[in-house]
Structure formats: structure tokens, C-alpha cells
Amino acid sequence: MTEDLTRTTSPLELDEAKARALEEKFDSEIRFRPLVPFAARLVGALLIVLSLFHYYTAGFGLLSEVLHRGIHLSFVLGLIFLVFPFTRRGYGAASASSLLRPLGISLFDWALAIGAVVAVMHVPFIPLDELAFRVGNPTTTDVVLGGVLVLVLLEATRRSVGWPLPIIALLFMIYSLYGPAMPGILVHPGATFSQLINHLYLTSQGIYGIALGVVATYVFHFVLFGVFATRIGLGQLFLDCAAWIAGRYAGGPAKISIFGSALFGMISGSSVANTVTVGSLTIPAMIRLGYKRTFAAAVESASSTGGQITPPIMGAAAFLMIEFLNLPYTTIILAAIVPAFMHFFGVLVQVHFEAKRDGLRGMTDEEMPDLKEAFRRDWPTVIPLVVLIAILLSGYTPYFAAFWGITLCIAVGLLNPRRRMSITEVLEGLRDGAKYALAVGAAAATVGIIVGVVTLTGVGFKISYIVTTTAAEMATWVGTVVPAAWFGPQTLTLLFTLIMTGVVCILMGCGIPTTANYIIMATIAAPTLGMLGVEPIVAHFFVFYYGVLADITPPVALAAYAAAGMAGADPFKTGNTAFRLGLGKVLVPFVFVFSPSLLLVTADFSWSNFTLAFLGCVAGITCLGAALSGFLLVRTLKWERLLLTLAAILLVVPELISSLVGATFILPVLLRQYRSFKGTPVAA
């Protein structure tokens, strides 16, 4: 971008080109193989066309449901085979064009791309009255093309996302075909191959289902808005604001990382994008200040995962909730406010305690940005975000709000003399925005296979029965050990169900992206919680919140590995440390299940219940953070860590006696800490 030469440089100057390069380096979902110039221009043009298609339909009206989703998926799958190689060796030098490799791309990949487009677009062009007749009576062509689509979809997902999700989809398909051979309660009549393809291909319960629809209707537009908002300078303004808020305090750069990620998360639902953009500035600053490289990278990645739950943009899962729960987006935004706050508070608590423990200083006045200059320079960049939020709150559709947000971003970029964008840069923004759609689009369509099998076989209800029965048995056993006045049997059953659900969410996150994790768990686990009386929005937020941990859960941990690469740290250690930092808010979902008022929009909301739940949550997070970091007022002893951990757990459960017991566990710790604090100097 061209800029006014008189502009004052911020001490935390964001190099957008460097951030984009880092993101492409560390985010496998947007890392394309090298292409010869003409192929690169062709791919760039197709990406721009995809963005323009979504931009136009967002402002002037969507196409019919199946046609809109079909066009989106045909672009996604066709492009994936052009830009993602069959193996990692394809990321080397660009292959020269030849008879067997037109434009440097193998004939095999061209065949897959063409086959994918043909298979996808077959269904949208079947007349609706004829399609209704063919559902349940597929033709041979339907079965063949449906089988082709399943195969190319699994391969496209493998290339862009990795092995775990396609393997899970394959296992679900095998389950549907071999139902009579399944053990115990999992047995079912089974489906023929034709019946399975019919359900996955011709109905809205499978590949063309809700998951793909949300990505094609909502997610794409907000990702594109985030790309343009960052490029016109809103990300830089957020970083300057974060530095002004937190930079001068102990461990300043680490706290800037948290506040910066929270603000940047308002316009970006991508954990990796948050990590490389904010981390390109905060990670080196943390290392200079004395933080270990592993911890510096972990702080940034743990903070950046919160972008997916930070209103108003959030991540793809938030838009999926609109369809799953049939609620307006404004309701989802309101419900996300407190969980988002608790996420960043949980990381902040541990960072603060670690900074105090190690005596790490804040930033000096010379290192701080000039906030007045920052606003004087970048105030126009706030206009698109304000307008987008206003349109959302006015009751219009999210994609219409995104349309005007994108339009105003482009207008500000073209007209703002201090950060002027060229037409070429606008086209680059359209191109780069579409890059994010490829992997998430393939993943969403593949998750449609899993959802389709669940609806075809009814396995979700069987899993729910297994989980609730197991939880009830565990509750009965614990009830013989723990005094009945502490926990009722129903509370214990729900507690164990939540624990098992949370563990499964985390384990699923070890191998698949957060959006896919949420869809699977919302399909299978959310009904389980509903059987125990949990409100639907509360159940969905529970699995959503835990699913966010996927980006910092080894062995995948995309955000943690990106941060580790920038910091020169060990990726696995960074992932483990980031996961530990994320544990500070692991109690939050339990709190809003037992005290739904924390989500602000539940049926039994009251300010008294909200206040008690909020304060209990803050206290529990603080106790757990102190236990994990080994510091409160002074370094904690082993017995203090144990008591703080037990107190944190007990404060979650809304039983009066258990809460009082939790409070009594804290008292001896506070007493010992206060006495030691008075006699021990602690770094400011």
C-alpha cells in the first residue's frame, strides 16, 4: 500500500506482506504448490471470480440453495486439485509445462478437477420436480456421479486438511454399509451402496447440507471482510490500542498479544491468521523481554484461538449455529460475549502470574505507540466495522451486513490518502480471501458425509444413550463416596456427561479442524446434553467452546505450530504449553451449563444468577491459573496448587455446599500467600 510519507511509524508496525507470507508458510490450508506463471494467473483469476460471485450474491440475492452450494463446491474442489499436490514433494519447484503436465499440473489432477466439477454440478441442474422423484430412486448416472463425488471429495479433503477427517468419514460410511455386523446397541439394518449415495448426494442431509451451505452463505463473506479490514489498517489500529491498554504492565508484550488477539479476532475468525499477524510483532518483543521462546509462541497461539469465539465475526461454527438452532445471528453474538471474555481472561491470568513470578517488565514510554497519532491516521478504518455491526443489529442477514462491510473497506482503501489501496491490491484481496474458502469448503462437505450417515442410521441417538448410561453408572458409584448434600445424582450424571463430551471434543481436535470438530460434536454430542435438560444453545456453545481448543491441541495444533515456527521454538512443546495456557478457561463451559444465565440469552436468565455465575467463573479461572502457573502473590507450594485446583473445580458446580467447600480450600492458601508476600519483595 502507498502511504503518506509524513506518517509516524508505530513501534509495533505491522508488516502485512510479511504476515501474509508467514501465514502461507505455516498454514497448510492456504499453502499452494508453486505454479508456472500462466497457471498461477489462471488460478488467481478463478479465485477472484469465486470472491466476486459471493460478493454479488450477498448484496443482490442468493441463488437457489442447491445451485448456490453447487457453484461454490465446484470452484472449491476444482481449485484444490490445481493448487494442492498429491504428496508433499509437490511443494518443491514448479513443474514445467508438457504434454503430460499441461501448465505444469499432471493429467491426473486435471482429471480429478474436471470430474469434481461435473459430479458437483450434476445435482443443481436436475429440475426440482424430477429431483424430488429421484430421491430414493436414483438413476445409474446419479449413483456413478455420486460415487465419483465422494471419492474426489475425500481426496480433496486429504490434500487440503489432512488424513484424519477423510478417515473418520470413511469409517462412518463403512458403519452405514455393514450395520448388521455391528456389536450391541450399534447394530442397524444397514444400507446398500445405492441407498448411501442417494442419501449423501441427492438430499440436503449429506454433502449439500447445512455445513456446506453455511460456508457458502456466511463464512466466505466474513473471511473476505476480515482480509480487507486488515489491509486497510484496522489490524494496525487494534494493535496500537492493545499496546496502549496493556503494554506498560508486567510482561507487557505478552499482554499485548492477548488484547491484540482479542481485538483482531473481531475481524478474523482464523486462529492461524491471528497468530501470524499479531505474533509477527508480539513474539519477538516477548523474547527480547526475557520470555522463553516456547512460552512466547504458546501465549500468542493460545490467545489467537479466541478469534473464533470473539464477536462480531467469530468463526465458521458460529454461523453453523444459526442453521442448527434456527436463531438470529445477533442472539449468537450476545451469547458469545461472556465466553469470549473468559477465554482471554483465562490466558491473561496465567500470563500475568508468570510475568510476576519471573519479574518481567512492561514496555517503556519510548516503546509505546502514540494512540492519538494512531487514531488520527487510521480512524477511517473503523467505519466498515461499525456499519457492519449496525446492520447486523438492525436484523438484516449476516451476508448482507458483510456485503456492506466489504464495500466500505474497499471504499476506504481507495479513498484514504494515508493508506491508499490500488486496484491491483483490491484484486489481490479478492484472491487471498478466496484462498481461505478452499480447505474449509472441502472439510464442510466431507463433514456432510458424517452428518448424512448419522441421519441415515440414527447412530447419534445410540451414542447419546451409551454416554448417558455410562455417566449415570459413574454418578451412582461416586454418590456412594461423596456426601449426598454436595452433589445430587442428576448433577453428577450431567457432570460426567460433560467431562466425557469435553474429552472427546479435545481428542477429536487432535486430528481435525475446529469447524469440522464442532459439526460432528453438535450432531452427536449436543443431543446427548439435550437429553439431560440442557438448553440447545448452551449445549452447542459447550461443544463449540471445547472445539476451539483444536488449534492448540497436539499433534495438529496449527496455531501453536505456526507460532513455534515464528519463534524458533519446538512445535510439540509449544503445543503442550499452549494447551496448558488454554486450560485456564477449561472450566468456563461447565459454568454456563450449570448456570445458563452466563450466556445472556437463555430462557431463565436473571441478573442475580448471571452475577453469581460470572463471579464464580472468574474466581475458578483465577484459582486454576494460579495452580498451573505456580504463582499467586508469591510462588505456590505443592499443597497450595492442589487446594487451588480442587477449589476451582468445586466453584464450577452450582451447589451451595460444594461452593462453600471450594471457598474454604482457598482460605489457607490466601493466608500463607499473604504472609509470604508481606515478607518477600515481588517484582513490579
UniProtKB/TrEMBL annotation:
Source species of the chain: Neorhizobium turbinariae
Protein's cellular compartments: Cell inner membrane
Keywords attached to this entry: Cell inner membrane, Cell membrane, Membrane, Transmembrane, Transmembrane helix, Transport
Family annotation (Pfam families): DctM (PF06808)
Name under which the protein is recorded: TRAP transporter permease
Membrane topology: Multi-pass membrane protein
InterPro entries for this protein: DctM (IPR010656), TRAP_DctM-Dct_fused (IPR011853)
PANTHER family documented for this protein: BLL3936 PROTEIN (PTHR43849)
Residue ranges of domain TRAP C4-dicarboxylate transport system permease DctM subunit in the record: 149-603
Ranges annotated as spanning the membrane: 38-58, 70-87, 99-123, 135-154, 166-187, 207-229, 258-283, 329-353, 374-393, 436-461, 492-512, 552-569, 581-600, 612-634, 646-671
Keyword DNA damage: no
Broad class of the protein's primary localization: membrane
Described purpose of this protein according to its UniProt entry: Part of the tripartite ATP-independent periplasmic (TRAP) transport system.
